[in-house]
């Protein structure tokens, strides 16, 4: 975001304003969006909470005694509290999806490389390959509208590494049953019983809706980290 720092909560990154807008910001502005604020995140990003030594703690808009989640917790709190219709977060192992769940909104992590991602020097090459930027909003239709706006010729011209595949409205609106894979355990982190129960409840609902749901088994060398 031009003329603003991208500190990632790290003091040494202060006073290093961006010289130009990122690709995502350029495309959103071209589509008529008005960026008006940058929100908080945990120091170094890789955290399920949302605090840093520069801007302090972000709390949940629905309960000030609770966290907003992380790492895109500032964005989740802003959208969840009604401060914005749309936000953009980044996600490796849940950093869009966790604050979206905590703040009662919707979040979407696109496939890595589907949108232009911000390159941050302290993130390893392994994690960069899994980093995605994606939308956060109050409902699924708003997420789809954002993806439709971003996946356009302007994006593809600005960044030739992004696959030139426009948003497929026909697929999004289709009622055709889907085949969906899911993980209960990634082979590295043991999920809590409540997480497994919630996942199985979602699986049952998807099956009731006519979709085919199959378990997947993760290769432990392909570990997901937040």
Automatic annotation (TrEMBL):
Keywords: Hydrolase
SUPFAM superfamilies in the record: Amidase signature (AS) enzymes (SSF75304)
Pfam hit, one: Amidase
Record-level Gene Ontology MF annotations: amidase activity; fatty acid amide hydrolase activity
Ranges for domain Amidase: 2-215
Gene3D superfamilies in UniProt: Amidase signature (AS) domain (3.90.1300.10)
Biological processes per GO annotation: fatty acid catabolic process
The family this protein is said to belong to: Belongs to the amidase family.
Protein name, per record: (spotted green pufferfish) hypothetical protein
Organism in which the protein naturally occurs: Tetraodon nigroviridis
């Amino acid at each position: 975001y031009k003329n603003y720092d991208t500190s990632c909560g790290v003091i040494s990154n202060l006073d290093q304003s961006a010289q130009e807008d990122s690709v995502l910001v350029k495309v959103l502005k071209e589509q008529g969006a008005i960026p008006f604020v940058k929100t908080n995140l945990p120091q170094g990003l890789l955290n399920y909470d949302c605090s840093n030594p520069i801007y302090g703690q972000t709390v949940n808009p629905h309960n000030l005694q609770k966290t907003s989640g992380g790492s895109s917790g500032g964005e989740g709190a802003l959208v969840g509290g009604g401060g914005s219709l749309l936000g953009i977060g980044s996600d490796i192992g849940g950093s869009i999806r966790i604050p979206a769940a905590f703040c009662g909104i919707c979040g979407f992590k696109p496939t890595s490389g589907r949108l232009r991602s911000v390159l941050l020097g302290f993130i390893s090459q392994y994690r960069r390959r899994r980093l995605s930027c994606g939308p956060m909003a109050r409902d699924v239709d708003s997420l789809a509208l954002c993806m439709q706006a971003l996946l356009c010729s302007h994006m593809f011209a600005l960044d030739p590494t992004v696959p030139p595949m426009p948003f497929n409205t026909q697929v999004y609106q289709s009622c055709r049953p889907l085949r969906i894979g899911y993980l209960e355990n990634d082979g590295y982190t043991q999920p809590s019983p409540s997480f497994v129960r919630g996942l199985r409840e979602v699986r049952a609902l998807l099956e009731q809706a006519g979709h085919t749901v199959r378990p997947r088994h993760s290769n432990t060398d392909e570990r997901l980290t937040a």
